[in-house]
Design goal:
Helix 12 crosses helix 13. The chain is of the alpha/beta class. The protein folds into two domains: 233 residues, 3-Layer(aba) Sandwich (Rossmann fold), CATH 3.40.50; 165 residues, 3-Layer(aba) Sandwich (Molybdenum Cofactor Biosythetic Enzyme, Chain A). It is built from 15 helices and 18 strands. The model has no long low-confidence stretch (mean pLDDT 95). Bound molecules: adenosine-5'-diphosphate.
Length: 420
């Protein structure tokens, strides 16, 4: 193994796995932290996906360190801590504290923090994170229920999460090339450990940054920061120079779309699929709570629709409806109710013959993958930026497209299935 990645959620892990695979690495993704002593699969890069973004800080640190040990034991030469391109976190963490713990474990005096993903509209300039044309603090992320992002200045945001001094390497310096950036980083860390927020407004910036960090043990950031890393291993003669795409063949069988995301993009994707005539069943959280809608009733409907054409099961709703449900059932309870049902439905549908699953929503994807009992994923071709097809790499014939809420074009569901 060359690169070990520790990712703080499942769809974010798939996103970075795709980035590395596109750059010619053989990549495997684990679902959950490997047990102590469990050998990791053979690959150029292994991405360990956790669900630690909003967990208590101590838990996030413990899991991240356990993942780090497993990756190092399997030979990882460099570690990347992957988080969201909108820097999802609070003043308590978990980005700063996890980065601190990893720096200590790896003996690093220096790491970078760069969530930029220009292809998806996330750029960092003069330390400020932009989402499309607006500052992070003016984007919908300001109202996120768990990690509201109300400050776009990442130096300030990260400094509130760590005692390690946080510094900035701004874009004009990045534009001077890898050696200049390396010198700047060394100068910033000469008096002691530092975390350096690094600007990036283009893929070129990310490649320069990756090259400048070739000799450092730890990087942190979004999937974009991974862009330049495979070439470092190529330059060192550790990775084949060709970037041949891996062969990917999805298991054959009926397809289902399971959508538990309520993001604006997913609402559009559900509406589009319905308008295209995809048979669909809407889930009603209140009916689930009252046992009027159950795994059995959903399954009855779904089995009648499993066949050559996909069907859609969704709880996706607009913010007003979600708010009403949350007021009645509680935020966490309503989320868990639906996630639990979709996980059981996914398992039952697999038993009934379904083999291809398109899933919308980060938490929803975690629940569905758990319901299906998949612990290892192979990365396949890209559907939209940040979202690849994957398939179970631990024996079960299952293909999965796991989409984080706000990713994908309007026709994502049908486009994904048409690719297979
Ligand atoms: P995203 O990637 O868009 O954030 P997630 O799946 O991570 O999507 O999160 C969506 C959350 O909202 C899940 O916990 C899901 O169970 C919950 N949810 C889905 N539909 C509804 C609904 N109609 N009412 C309330 N909560 C819902």
């Amino acid at each position: 193994m060359l690169l070990g990645v520790i990712a703080d959620d499942l769809t974010g892990a798939t996103d970075v796995a795709l980035m590395l695979s596109r750059e010619g690495m053989r990549v495997v993704q684990t679902v959950g932290v490997p047990a102590k002593g469990q050998p990791l699969p053979e690959a150029d890069a292994v991405v360990v996906s956790m669900k630690s973004r909003t967990n208590p800080v101590e838990e996030a640190i413990a899991w991240s360190l356990q993942a780090c040990e497993a990756l190092l034991a399997s030979g990882a030469k460099q570690i990347l801590f992957k988080y969201c391109s909108t820097f999802d976190s609070t003043d308590q963490g978990n980005i700063g504290p996890v980065a601190d713990a990893l720096m200590t474990r790896l003996g690093s005096r220096l790491t970078v923090a760069c969530p930029a993903f220009p292809e998806n509209g996330r750029s960092v300039y003069r330390g400020h994170l932009f989402v499309g044309d607006v500052l992070l603090s003016d984007s919908p992320m300001k109202d996120h229920p768990l990690t509201p992002m109300r400050d776009a200045n990442l130096v300030r945001v990260l400094q509130r999460q760590t005692k390690t001094p946080v510094r900035l390497v701004a874009q004009p310096m990045i534009a001077q090339g890898a050696q200049a950036v390396r010198d700047a980083l060394q100068a910033l860390s000469k008096d002691g450990p530092v975390m350096v927020v690094a600007d990036a407004i283009s893929n070129q910036d990310l490649r320069i940054l990756g090259e400048a960090m070739a000799d450092e043990m730890l990087l942190t950031g979004g999937s974009g920061i991974a862009l330049g890393l495979p070439d470092n291993f190529r330059r060192a003669g550790l990775l084949a120079s060709n970037k041949t795409a891996s062969s990917f063949s999805a298991p054959k069988g009926p397809a289902v779309i399971l959508s538990g995301s309520c993001s604006a993009a997913t609402n559009g994707q559900v509406a589009y699929a319905k308008a295209q005539g995809v048979p669909s069943l809407g889930l009603d959280p209140l009916a689930i709570a009252d046992q009027k809608q159950t795994v059995a009733t959903v399954l009855d409907w779904a089995q009648a629709h499993l066949g050559d054409k996909p069907c859609l099961i969704y709880s996706t709703a607009h913010p007003e409806a979600v708010k009403q449900v949350q007021e009645r059932l509680g935020r966490d309870q309503s989320g868990q109710l639906i996630e639990h049902l979709l996980a059981e439905v996914a398992h039952a549908l697999f038993e009934a013959g379904a083999r291809r699953f398109v899933v919308a929503g980060g938490e929803t994807s975690g629940a569905v993958v758990q319901g299906l009992g998949v612990s290892l994923l192979e990365i396949g071709p890209e559907i939209d930026p940040g979202v690849p097809w994957t398939k179970a790499a631990d024996g079960k014939p299952i293909a999965l497209a796991l989409k984080s809420g706000n990713f994908g074009t309007e026709d994502f569901f049908l486009k994904a299935l048409a690719m297979l």
